[in-house]
Amino acid sequence: MSPGVAELLLQRLEREAAAPGAGICSLEAAAALGLDHQALVGAVKSLQALGEVIEAEPRAATRWELSPEGTEVLRDGSPEVRLFRSLPAEGLPQADAMKLPGGSVGFSKAMANKWLRLEKGAPGGPRVFRAVSGVQDTVQEALRRLHQGETEAVPERERNDLKRRKLLLEVTLKSYWIRKGSAFSTAVARQETELTPEMITTGSWRQLPFKPYNFAALGLAPAAGHLHPLLKVRSELRQIFLEMGFTEMPTQNFVESSFWNFDALFQPQQHPARDQHDTFFLQDPAEAAELPPGYTAKVKKVHSHGGYGSQGYKYDWKLEEARRNLLRTHTTAASARMLYRLAQQERFSPVKYFSIDRVFRNESLDATHLAEFHQVEGVVADRGLTLGHLMGILRQFFTKLGITQLRFKPAYNPYTEPSMEVFSYHEGLKKWVEVGNSGIFRPEMLLPMGLPENISVLAWGLSLER
Amino acid sequence: MPTVSVKRDLLFQALGRTYTDEEFNELCFEFGLELDEITSEKDIISKEKGEDRAKGASDTVLYKIDVPANRYDLLCLEGLVRGLQVFKERISLPRYEKIIPAEGEGQKLIITEKTVQVRPHAVAAVLRDITFTKERYDSFIDLQEKLHQNICRRRALVAIGTHDLDTISGPFTYTAKAPSEIKFKPLNQSQEYTASQIMDLYRTDSHLRHYLHLIENKPRYPVIYDSNGVVLSMPPIINGDHTKISVNTKNVFIECTGTDITKAKIVLDIIVTMFSEYCEKPFSVEAVEVIYPNGKTHICPELAYRKEKVKPELINKKIGISETPSSLAKLLTRMCLKSHVIGNGNNIEIEIPPTRADIIHACDIVEDAAIAYGYNNIQMAIPKTYTIANQLPLNKLTELLRLDLAAAGFTEALTFALCSQEDVADKLGMDISATKAVRIANPKTAEFQVARTTLLPGLLKTIAANRKMPLPLKLFEISDVVVKDPNTGSAFFPGRCAEVFAKGQSIGKLGVLHPDVITKFELSMPCSAVEINIEPFV
């Protein structure tokens, strides 16, 4: 705020608008004081912030100003008149006529005014002649009137015409009608913005006025570091699993073999998910080096012939296909590794495992699909677990996430049976949305690993991004 | 999930009642289906091609229903209706009957050894005295297409051919011949072509061109003839025009050929069980004798019913309910698995029909019992599994570091693990072979060529995308990289970088980035970075 300008304005108000109800126009005041209007407006605004010192009523006035072209016309005459006056008595071929001062605009305007006559059949091509003896430059006249401020002298229709021809500009002037306010004084009280140590020690704060806060202004953002929002959700879910007694699985391998990603999970080699379209296969290294041989043979058998109480898929299972390396499509591959390790123990012990990590699908990217996203997976292995237990633990898990209304729907996964999709009611969308997938791992997956027959393994998963 | 499109009113007519959309949605939810979309032909064309082109299209309401990928018996209106009606106990599952014609009267399909090199297996059956309407005919064609797309793996495993039996005469021969020796008029064409010409003819066909590669480079192409040399089909590409079926066809000869005999049998079973409903003798299928190159014969279709025994306690225990054996038997029967109590009431015998090839283990039976019981009727229970949780040390360290880095004023980034070759090599001033990066075989774009060997490119690209933000920009990321071998690099400005050691072991580098690296990532401000491996600290 410039005390100088505000004070000048207050003094002027005192002088020029002494009578009650009297006021001054900001534009006139700025001109009289030799100031830029905007500077005066600034002073008006800061005075307004002080309370009732002044009253400022916003006003808008429209003024008509000549555009640069309009100024030219004022000086040289309108294009149509110039063209008319330059046309020789004997006329000109049309093409040449268009090149006269005034150009094609002048030509078409003059034609429209019927000042010119076009003889189409003339020798040498269409020829332009004067059709009248003399003309009045009404356009130039109108512009002169407007330039001199005689707005009423020019009818609205003509003004709009000139505006359309871009000879005239309608300018809106914003100004203020300023009057003395109820708390008027010529002295500008300087307002303090901060409480300083001196004010505290001297006690001067008791006499000083303080500027009120402008709540419409944005504050200064504090310098700070930030955690990624998605990873904050990851931390939260990690916390939930730990609270429920789940141990974290090692998942720091994006590269996996088809064997652990698909075959060990009883997903057949002809399954669509194993397509080029859905899975990122590796060019280098293309194949997994080692797979556990005894276990591989059992997996081969259950796929191709059945066993363990199963009919199997009855197709030719190929080791080369299982060897193919890929970027894991789910962290269930890591769960399979852990369960296999568990099965190699001397004695079975119940476990609860979890993981939250990145998985890859060979999708085209769009608003709702990513090629990389994070999968959350929970696994419980124990004796005597039922579908009811799976629903129970899902309820506990989702309740900790603040999701309490759950419904379960039959679903299909190659490696779980029964399978359930978990739905929750979304208050905002007013409909049931899928929040996760779950199931009990198939015996064809668990038994070849060597897990005892009475062990059930519950599992569920969801994507972090959802 | 496969989607089946059915006309709502036809569906309700077959179900014998109407539903509101919400009611039908609920029914689908209970059964394991999903009512994905309610639309009409007009809506579909409107969305794809604009409202103008949709004028005059049908307003008939269509239900698009998502069906589990392993339920081939629900891929058409007929199957859906049958499944739902049995589920609601309005009908009992029909019994599918294989009619073996008297000696000398049945159809035969002879397979020659020449097919062994290309697509060795074939099965066939006849639907006798069938009555099609336009809807049934469309459904018949649609089912074949759905099966082709799903279980047949886009015709690679099995191809289906359906023919008007009255236009041909058996015995039929399934053989393979050189392309130049095969000549016939393909479906809907106006003249004859040789097989090689057919390949060229359909090279630009939006539908068929995807299947040409299945046989194109073989010395012999599969072909089925009747006894007069009429070509029925050249699987898996196209049928002959001569045998095409229409709404008026009364007798249909169905053949399934391919590389997987199990799937060919399942596919044939599905087609005949679904559509034998419209035969004069409903649910009866006329058998065909298939003769193998070695002289062995086989009667098709399988239409096998399999009996399994499952203990009621097992079902109750796995689900977490306690139903009586007879009530469990009733639940299973509602799922098209006809069951009854046997023994002293402590066992259940289940008959698995040919439409349920998805039942391969007792756990499949348990799931069906649970579905019929109603998942949401099952009482929830908490597992008594007592475990102490352990954090993975690497992740525990990561969480601690993340918090301290954010407190130090750095902002966490989350970047893609896949990137372009240049990102990990050229832009960092290194040769690609030196990086030993893991390469992707089938990337959809150049942005997914390799897996990142360092976190640096991801962060630099993040900065480049946020150039307009006020400085300073301080970023961090703690995540996995994929390396075949640890690498060395010259991404840093000479003399302004250092190697970081912890307990005598090199764990990474820090320093000011080389101006070339900065420029290649489209940045202009000086940039310093540190990258260390935290695994040694675990």
TrEMBL record, chain A:
Q: What is its main location?
A: cytoplasm
Q: Which cofactor does it need?
A: Mg(2+)
What is the E.C. number? 6.1.1.20
Q: Which GO terms describe its molecular function?
A: ATP binding; metal ion binding; phenylalanine-tRNA ligase activity; tRNA binding
Query: May I have one GO cellular component term?
Result: cytosol
Q: Where in the cell is it found?
A: Cytoplasm
Q: Where in the sequence is the signal peptide annotated?
A: none
Q: Which GO terms describe its biological process?
A: phenylalanyl-tRNA aminoacylation
InterPro entries in the record: aa-tRNA-synth_II, aa-tRNA-synth_II/BPL/LPL, Phe-tRNA-synth_IIc_asu, Phenylalanyl-tRNA_Synthase, PheRS_DBD1, PheRS_DBD2, PheRS_DBD3
Q: Record's NCBIfam families? A: pheS (TIGR00468), PRK04172.1 (NF003210)
Q: Provide the family line.
A: Belongs to the class-II aminoacyl-tRNA synthetase family. Phe-tRNA synthetase alpha subunit type 2 subfamily.
Instruction: Give the protein name, as stated in the record.
Output: phenylalanine--tRNA ligase
Q: Which organism is it from?
A: Melopsittacus undulatus (Budgerigar)
From TrEMBL, chain B:
Is-annotated flag, keyword Transcription regulation? Answer: no
EC number of this enzyme: 6.1.1.20
The listed locations are: Cytoplasm
Q: What class of enzyme is it?
A: ligase
According to its UniProt record, what is one Pfam family this protein matches?
B5
Report the principal subcellular site: cytoplasm
Q: Which GO terms describe its cellular component?
A: phenylalanine-tRNA ligase complex
InterPro entries (UniProt xref) = aa-tRNA-synth_II/BPL/LPL (IPR045864), B3/B4_tRNA-bd (IPR005146), DNA-bd_dom_put_sf (IPR009061), Phe-tRNA-ligase_IIc_bsu (IPR045060), Phe-tRNA-synth_IIc_bsu_arc_euk (IPR004531), Phe-tRNA_synthase-like_B3/B4 (IPR020825), PheRS_beta_core (IPR041616), PhetRS_B1 (IPR040659)
What GO annotations for molecular function exist for this entry?
ATP binding; magnesium ion binding; phenylalanine-tRNA ligase activity; RNA binding
Q: Which NCBIfam families match?
A: pheT_arch (TIGR00471)
Name this protein carries in UniProt: Phenylalanine--tRNA ligase beta subunit
Q: State the gene name recorded for this protein.
A: LOC101877787
